[in-house]
Amino acid sequence: MLNIRRRTWCHCALVLAGALFFAVEVAAQTSGVPTGNIITGNATGSTSAVVGTLAGFVGKTTYICGFSISGTGSAAVSPVTVAGVIGSSMVFQNLSAGTGALSQAFYPCVPASAPNTAITVTTTADGTATAVNVNSWGFVQ
Fold it and tell me: I need a surface site. Which of 17, 41, 64, 115 has the fewest CB within 10 A?
């Protein structure tokens, strides 16, 4: 009789442990692979700074997965600064004068320096630029 009770108790404990395993909320993935809401930050200009912004959200972290900068006209579009990311700002150079594009993908995606922090992609162009486009993409979770 004692052996049957022990087996029944062990069986109940295993069933309960299995139920708890499936009832526990899964932790958010933080590998830098898009698992949250996809967001974009796009801007157009022709002179001065052009800024694409991936917004920050209360209690959530914004990630940047890539950006693309393009420009027309005779202006060099440089430097390109990605700010608000963990560590320090990233700076890219040499988008030459005339029609050109600079694209950069990040894998894994790069998180913001803190929750509720926006990530900006900023470039400059002088008055000879016809158009400058900043497109950035990422996610928030």
Answer: 17
